[in-house]
């Protein structure tokens, strides 16, 4: 068939049907999906969950990533969405309606707590915060209107470890579902679905993406009907993901076990160094024997990540800015799980009630990357020397005043 140039520009020659196999995920982009006949076109809505009907609702690339995540999570189905925050919003809105309640731990990701108050509240969904250490005692907070209980273990700033099986048992007994923000541990270190959780959520931007250049979140489930509720809510919200980002995430998954093990090994040595520093009042890491959640962590988790916090002595707070400015490898950034080492400074006491176990002082969260241990220790050493110098100067000034 002879075609004019304008038509040939739009319709390239058909490609070979010979199989092409590569180790990398193929990237297939599309908004429009075409059908061979009218019957298939008119029944395209039936393809929303398992086939392809429109690019927004899934491409072969995104479905391959979803299938991979479902396997890694130990679930039957998974769904990828534009961010971890989107995944949390999606899970909550898929389960809760106006007039119902969702329980969220005080440790939950800060923007998610804002979402619960400022977005879900006006929709009539009541969000109630709870002490993450309640564990089985959370049963007293679950009433007939409670539809969902969120857990985050460990908490992303102060690293409280929750007894997820006990919370799940209490919630299910009262007819509520449980969703877990499992971003810190990921499916490698803790599998929420195996511990009775209904929705396992991750911010794939962190460990899975692994390079600080990807935004994506996921939810994984056992129950197919729940998956359909999540899928419907996602399409009503207009959630879609780029196939290029899916391919980047798939590539990140390939190296994720090696990266997590390396970061954890480096983090343990940095923790040992910090433990000897007089400037550090407390280490917050569940693998440390003195951590309040260590026993539960040891029972339920397969290991730990290279993300932890420590508390500086309160009197050092005025020096933070100068010390942070002197760092060369550690950069200030509110994320974790990437190849670059990061520090996030926060005051997690804001908006929380129970801190009897946390010592006073600024909280620094470190995400350990892939840099050499000696270089990271050298960076911290030269920065902490500013603390030591200020302490020496303060002591000298005090001695001089006493001698007057």
What do you see in this structure?
Strand 2 (about 100-105), helix 5 and strand 3 (about 125-130) form a beta-alpha-beta unit. Residues about 395-404 have low confidence and may be disordered. The longest helix has about 35 residues, at about 245-275. The chain starts with a helix and ends with a helix. The radius of gyration is 25 Å and the shape is globular. It is of the alpha/beta class and about 400 residues long. Helix 4 crosses helix 5 (about 110-120) and helix 11 runs antiparallel to helix 12. About 40% of the residues lie in helices and about 15% in strands. It is built from 12 helices and 12 strands. The strands form 2 sheets. Strands 1-7-6-5-4-2-3 form a 7-stranded mixed sheet, sandwiched between helices. It has a 5-stranded mixed sheet with strand order 8-9-12-11-10, covered by helices on one side.
Distance between the termini: 104 Å
Dominant shape: globular
Give the structural class. Answer: alpha/beta
Mean pLDDT score, rounded? 90
What is the spatial order of strands in the main beta sheet? Answer: 1-7-6-5-4-2-3
What low-confidence regions span 5 or more consecutive residues with pLDDT below 50? 396-403
CA radius of gyration is: 25 Å
């Amino acid at each position: 068939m002879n075609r004019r140039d304008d038509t040939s520009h739009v319709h390239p020659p058909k490609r070979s049907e010979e199989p092409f196999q590569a180790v990398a995920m193929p990237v297939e982009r599309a908004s429009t999906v075409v059908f061979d006949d009218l019957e298939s076109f008119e029944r395209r809505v039936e393809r929303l969950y398992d086939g392809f009907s429109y690019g927004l609702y899934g491409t072969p690339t995104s479905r391959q990533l979803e299938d991979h995540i479902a396997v890694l999570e130990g679930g039957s189905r998974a769904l990828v969405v534009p961010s971890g925050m989107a995944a949390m919003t999606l899970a909550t809105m898929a389960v809760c309606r106006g007039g119902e309640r969702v329980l969220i731990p005080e440790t939950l990701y800060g923007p998610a707590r804002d979402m619960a108050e400022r977005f879900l509240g006006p929709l009539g969904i009541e969000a109630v915060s709870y002490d993450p250490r309640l564990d089985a005692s959370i049963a007293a907070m679950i009433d007939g209107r409670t539809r969902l209980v969120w857990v985050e273990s460990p908490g992303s700033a102060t690293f409280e470890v929750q007894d997820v099986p006990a919370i799940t048992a209490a919630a299910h007994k009262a007819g509520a579902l449980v969703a877990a923000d499992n971003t810190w541990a990921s499916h490698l270190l803790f599998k929420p679905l195996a511990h009775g959780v209904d929705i396992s959520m991750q911010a794939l931007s962190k460990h899975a993406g692994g390079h600080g250049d990807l935004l994506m979140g996921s939810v994984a489930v056992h129950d197919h009907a729940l998956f359909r509720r999540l899928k419907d809510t996602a399409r009503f919200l207009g959630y879609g993901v780029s196939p290029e980002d899916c391919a980047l995430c798939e590539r990140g998954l390939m190296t994720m076990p090696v990266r997590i093990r390396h970061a954890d090994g480096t983090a343990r040595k940095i923790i040992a160094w910090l433990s000897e520093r007089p400037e550090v009042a407390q280490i917050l890491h569940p693998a440390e024997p003195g951590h309040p959640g260590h026993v539960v962590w040891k029972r339920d988790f397969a290991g730990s990540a290279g993300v932890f916090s420590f508390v500086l002595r309160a009197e050092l707070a005025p020096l933070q800015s100068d010390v942070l400015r002197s760092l060369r490898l550690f950069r200030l950034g509110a994320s974790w799980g990437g190849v670059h080492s990061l520090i996030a400074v926060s005051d997690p006491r804001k908006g929380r009630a129970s801190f009897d176990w946390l010592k006073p002082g600024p909280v620094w969260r470190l995400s350990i990357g892939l840099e050499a241990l000696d270089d990271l220790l050298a960076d911290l050493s030269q920065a902490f020397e500013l603390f030591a110098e200020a302490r020496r100067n303060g002591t000298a000034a005090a001695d001089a005043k006493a001698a007057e």
